[in-house]
Specification:
The protein is mostly beta strands. It has a domain of 58 residues. The chain has 1 helix and 6 strands. The strands form 2 sheets. The chain has a 4-stranded antiparallel β-sheet with strand order 3-4-5-6. A two-stranded antiparallel sheet has the order 1-2. Strand 4 and strand 5 form a beta hairpin. The chain is flat and about 45 Å long. 10% of the residues are buried.
Length: 86
């Protein structure tokens, strides 16, 4: 089981992350009345975001692969998003 904690500078620490069980899910996007709904498919391996697109998974902007393939390909083709909160 992966443990979590905060260090002295309040950074979030995941202990033994690489030995944890793989998981994946969709992040639904929210669009305004005139916007286009988006989605993102993420895995907890490699880069995180494995695919994203508009409408449904038949309209990907970045190629959609099922979880078993995404665990292998996300480190090479995915991307990370970092947020800096001030």
């Amino acid at each position: 089981m992966t443990g979590t904690s905060f260090d002295d500078t309040q950074r979030f620490i995941l202990e033994s992350f690489a030995s944890g069980l793989p998981f994946s899910s969709f992040l639904p996007g929210i669009a305004g009345p005139l916007g286009t709904p988006m989605w993102a498919f993420y895995v907890n391996r490699g880069q995180g975001i494995a695919s994203f697109g508009i409408g449904n998974k038949d309209n990907p902007i970045m190629e959609f692969l099922p979880a078993n393939k995404s665990y292998q390909s996300a480190p090479l083709t995915g991307f990370r998003t970092f947020l800096k909160l001030t």
